[in-house]
Design goal:
By secondary structure, the chain is mainly alpha-helical. It is built from 13 helices and no strands. Keywords: Cell membrane, Membrane, Transmembrane, Transmembrane helix, Transport.
Length: 365
């Protein structure tokens, strides 16, 4: 009898688990196309919520109106520089094509200092010098490599267009999140509380929130500032395709690579076409822009958090190497939570040992 009842319970439990698994699977499949947009929307909402609160207060506490206006402003702020960069690329491409067709396209001769660049100096100087003397012959000689680069560039541009559309959707989703931020905050606390306990659940929710804001300010924020400053300098110096160079600098800065790796080529070009004084001023400006993360990151990264800045930075870099830009946040959050869990476990053992020592001393006394 007991054996039959046990078998029946096992079968019923297996059926229930299977049904739950099927429902979860189909829910995941349905939401999969929107998963990245929703995740980015949540990250953006957490990052901008303090600013959104001030904006909402200016509008008399009207959350829906504030969220709608925020979405319009944020989408405009995203589309406007995208259009400017696109126009810069199109104008540069048209100008280069017209000059090439008419035979008026010339490449300035490189400075001999280019040959002294580490690793790529000699090859860069040879290619650049050959192009300045006979552009058509140089292009024909390297035609396969140039076709491959062009194909990769067009694929990257198409990918950027898709990314912009995804961010537009993410901004709309973030507007929904910030409009109901208090409810979402309670839901996250409940999730962490179910996994741990009520007190720790709120602590880990706040930790995840502060980590997202720290990474948004200290990594993405600094990268955007550097890219904008570099774009301003290149625009003033009338550097061709300044929009493309700015985009590359943004990617390098997010990847925690110094913008001088890109600005170095731009500096060489400016010295080749501009007078010495403005070229030197631009070089100094570019060096300052590249080195600005040295004092900007400590100002923003890890501000207001007990988690060490190095933990957040390592998590952001490692996460990005694994999962791209979204890994900046996921990696930082996971590593910060892991660090806090480890420290909590470590301190609890130390506290327990200290309490045991005090009890023993009291008994002996």
């Amino acid at each position: 009898m007991e054996h039959t009842l046990f078998t029946k319970n096992v079968i019923e439990a297996a059926i229930r688990v299977s049904l739950v698994a099927v429902v979860i699977y189909f829910c995941a499949k349905i939401l999969q196309p929107f998963a990245m947009a929703v995740l980015w929307g949540a990250i953006i909402a957490v990052a901008i919520y303090p600013l959104f609160t001030r904006f909402k207060n200016l509008l008399g506490g009207k959350s829906k109106l504030a969220a709608s206006l925020y979405a319009v402003i944020a989408i405009s702020a995203l589309i406007t520089p995208t259009v400017m960069i696109s126009n810069s690329l199109i104008d540069t491409s048209v100008t280069i094509n017209e000059q090439y067709q008419s035979g008026a396209l010339t490449i300035p001769a490189p400075s001999k200092s280019v040959a002294e660049w580490p690793l790529i100096g000699e090859k860069t100087y040879t290619f650049w010098n050959g192009a300045s003397k006979n552009l058509e012959n140089t292009l024909n000689t390297h035609l396969p490599q140039l076709k491959s680069i062009a194909t990769s560039a067009f694929s990257a541009i198409a990918g950027i267009g898709g990314t912009v559309l995804q961010f537009v959707l993410s901004i709309i989703i973030s507007a929904v999140f910030v409009a109901s931020a208090e409810s979402a905050y309670r839901v996250i606390i409940n999730i962490f509380s179910r996994l741990t306990d009520a007190k720790t659940g709120k602590e880990y929710t706040d930790l995840a929130r502060d980590t997202i804001r720290s990474v948004a300010q200290g990594v993405l924020g600094v990268a955007i500032i550097q890219a904008l400053l570099a774009a301003l300098g290149m625009y003033v110096m009338d550097v061709p395709a300044w929009g493309l160079w700015s985009l590359v600098i943004l990617v390098f800065a997010i990847a925690q690579l110094p913008p001088i790796l890109v600005l170095g080529f731009v500096i060489s070009y400016v010295f080749s076409v501009a007078e010495t004084t403005p070229a030197v001023i631009f070089m100094i400006y570019a060096i300052i822009v590249s080195a600005s993360d040295g004092f900007l990151k400590p100002m923003f990264l890890g501000r207001g958090m007990e988690t060490p800045m190095l933990v957040i930075l390592l998590g952001a870099i490692g996460g990005m190497m694994m999962s791209g830009i979204i890994g900046l946040f996921v990696g930082a959050i996971v590593l910060a939570l892991g660090y806090e869990l480890f420290m909590k476990w470590l301190n609890s053992d130390v506290s327990a040992q200290a309490l045991e020592d005090q009890t023993e001393e009291k008994n002996n006394g």
